[in-house]
Amino acid sequence: MARPTEHEVLAAVLQIREGSLQVLAWQRARPPDEGRWALPGGRLGDDEDVERSVRRQLAEKVDVREVTHVEQISVFSSPDRVPGVRQIATAFLGLVPSDSDPEVPSDTAWHPLSGLPLTAFDHAAIVEAAHDRLRAKLSYTNLGFALAPREFTISALRGLYVAALGHPVSATNLQRVLTRRRLLEPTGEVSPPGPAGGRPAALFRFTDRVLHVTDAFAVLRPPSEQLRGAVP
Amino acid sequence: MARPTEHEVLAAVLQIREGSLQVLAWQRARPPDEGRWALPGGRLGDDEDVERSVRRQLAEKVDVREVTHVEQISVFSSPDRVPGVRQIATAFLGLVPSDSDPEVPSDTAWHPLSGLPLTAFDHAAIVEAAHDRLRAKLSYTNLGFALAPREFTISALRGLYVAALGHPVSATNLQRVLTRRRLLEPTGEVSPPGPAGGRPAALFRFTDRVLHVTDAFAVLRPPSEQLRGAVP
DNA sequence: TCCCGTTTTCGACTATGAGTCGGAAACAGG
DNA sequence: CCTGTTTCCGACTCATAGTCGAAAACGGGA
């Protein structure tokens, strides 16, 4: 006799706010874990897959159009992860660009990853896993597009990478690495200098706004094909 | 009224056999999809998480001790992926070293990834995803340990990488890349030459037999810390 | 108008590690 | 002892990341 099993989806929605990486959470008003902070999500519907479900449930917390990337992280399925019922969760990473400030319900707020309040169930581990995934993919994909505004200066982009990666990043190197992979391109426009003056910064955008891994990062790549000769 | 939902685990167990990458599958004897080939797996038990479950269920097909690596791939949750019931699957990649030949039940067999027979449900997509994951991780982790015997020659290892990656690999380069990352180390022993003679090949082993990503592969890494000065 | 501090930009240089190549080394067989 | 075979290993090239500093382009005030 199988214990009744429920399936839920949960999302760690991350955004860079005021220079630090923050996560969206809501405070539980009822037991179990009353008062603790939980990730948005809920039960999987009958006619949707997990990805559709998490997007639907996020729409109840923030405007979906502001979530620029959603990605499956892992299944959390420990038998006692939620007291009482057998509940299996598919966890997601969600990203919101730094220039949007979605309206959120009154029980919901952003929290910096460093210094999270008391979290419900195993949601802290989910946030951790989402952060790890973000750090990894920032460095070998174009995932930066999901954190950045449509147009930005290199130093603004540098700030985003520093906040997400947690270590210094050279602006010169960042620009060169991203442009030579054709991930970044200049818009031609410039942004006016700040209050202290300074040279106006050129504006850039990501060439592609869907995830796409750079194949050149891989080691042990296929042999160089030299140049494919023209037809004889 | 929620439709009753079941949760199952499925594994694409891969092994290099006779120079080609093959997957373990069993032939369904009953509808639905009777006669088609399915991946090993089954229903999640009440007191186990998905990882324990897939290892348990694999034990019914092959000796678990021969599975050197198990890794979660993704959740497959399309509402109509299995006719009749609402069934959600957590898919895994499993690896078996090339020198073991586990006994399998009579309904079970290995099939080359190129030229799979008719597969049940969405299992072909799972195999595809597992293959992609294997290719990716072979090039920036030490995952090769899970495909290789405990000790091997460089050219034998090269054969495994060629079969798994699907493109030529230089033996010289393979050895250098893996040894400089401290993933490979010589045992000191040599293997006797083949029937045609030739110089005896040195034997190697993987230094670590658990998965472990090389941090040096990442681009945009933290700034060099030069040399940490000695204590004053 | 002319300095000056600020910020960005861009080139040059260095360092690291991957891909390639060819010759030397070590075996079996005749 | 010679030949064919396989492995080993050093040297070279090449691609790309990390570093540094000077020049460019602004605002503000003397």
Describe the fold and architecture:
The structure is a homodimer of 232-residue chains. Chain A has 232 residues and is an alpha+beta fold. Chain A contains 4 helices and 10 strands; from the N terminus they run E-E-E-E-H-E-E-E-H-E-H-H-E-E. In chain A, the strands form 2 sheets. In chain A, strands 1, 2, 3, 4, 5, 6 and 7 form a 7-stranded mixed beta sheet that branches. A 3-stranded antiparallel beta sheet of chain A has the order 8-10-9. The termini of chain A are far apart. Residues 226-232 of chain A have low confidence and may be disordered. The structure holds a DNA duplex (30 and 30 nucleotides).
Indicate the topology.
The structure is a homodimer of 232-residue chains.
Chain A: E1 5-17, E2 20-27, E3 37-38, E4 41-43, H1 50-59, E5 69-76, E6 86-95, E7 108-112, H2 123-140, E8 152-153, H3 154-165, H4 171-180, E9 184-191, E10 201-206
Parallel strand pairs in A: 1-6
Antiparallel strand pairs in A: 1-2, 1-4, 2-3, 2-7, 5-6, 8-10, 9-10
The first copy, chain A, binds a DNA duplex (30 and 30 nucleotides) through residues 153-155, 170-173, 175-177, 180, 192-202, 216, 219-221, 223-224.
